[in-house]
Design a protein that fits this description.
The complex is a heterodimer of chains A (about 70) and B (about 140). Helix content of chain A is about 70%, strand content about 0%. By secondary structure, chain A is an all-alpha fold. Chain A starts with a helix and ends in an 8-residue tail after the last helix. Chain B has one domain. Classes of the chains: A mainly alpha (about 70), B mainly alpha (about 140).
Chain lengths: ~70, ~140
């Protein structure tokens, strides 16, 4: 329960950072700008592609439906 | 019309993928197809080449981002990794500190939610290809 709450808190923090990035673009980057910064190098692009593929395989080919 | 067709294809694909049993050959196949298509098109559009032009185009999208402006995202990523590591150290299925995938598994129990998440995943990939194509068009014109 504590862990789940922390995941939700981290999600909320992400939303907060995104809003801050839109309100104060000179101080905080939005997620799209941060990702674009990572994409400047080929290695960054490859990492993002591998991450995208990992998410797809993990969520849609290797998920486990919890028992209630 | 093209976008509507593409949208309908992606929704149908997400629905079919979300209905297949996990850990089956078909589930790996259905996830593998968009991955393969993505990598091939991304490569053809020059996304995997070390050319400075693409990097410069992308740099224009990142704006004035510096290490200090992306620091909150780095801190968030670090927190995610730490919490995931703690969850894994506790066995991965701990109810007090579950891993991210264990938390998400609860959402994946319902097919239509699974379908929406799958659609979001497909759209994230399609959006990357669309952006790269736009950059190529601007550069070529």
């Amino acid at each position: 329960m504590v862990g789940t709450t922390m995941w939700i808190a981290l999600l909320a923090a992400g939303v907060f950072i995104e809003v801050a990035g839109r309100l104060r673009p000179n101080h905080v980057s939005t997620l799209s700008r941060a990702v674009a910064m990572m994409e400047e190098r080929v290695s960054g692009r490859v990492i993002l592609i591998v991450l995208w593929i990992f998410v797809g395989i993990h969520l849609f080919a290797r998920y486990t439906v919890p028992h209630h | 019309m093209k976008r509507a067709t593409l949208g309908a294809v992606l929704i149908a694909y997400a629905w079919v993928t979300s209905g297949v049993a996990p850990f089956s050959a078909l589930s790996y196949f259905l996830v593998g197809i968009p991955c393969l298509v993505f990598v091939v098109i991304y490569g053809l559009l020059g996304g995997l080449s070390n050319g400075g032009a693409i990097s410069a185009d992308i740099r224009s999208r990142s704006g004035e981002s510096t290490l200090s402006t992306v620091a909150p995202w780095l801190a968030l990523m670090t927190a995610v990794i730490v919490l995931e590591a703690i969850g894994l150290l506790l066995g991965g299925r701990s109810t007090s500190v579950p891993t991210l995938s264990t938390t998400v598994d609860h959402l994946l129990a319902v097919r239509w939610v699974r379908c929406w998440i799958c659609l979001a995943w497909l759209l994230a990939g399609a959006f990357q290809l669309y952006q790269l194509r736009q950059l190529r068009r601007i550069r070529d014109s």
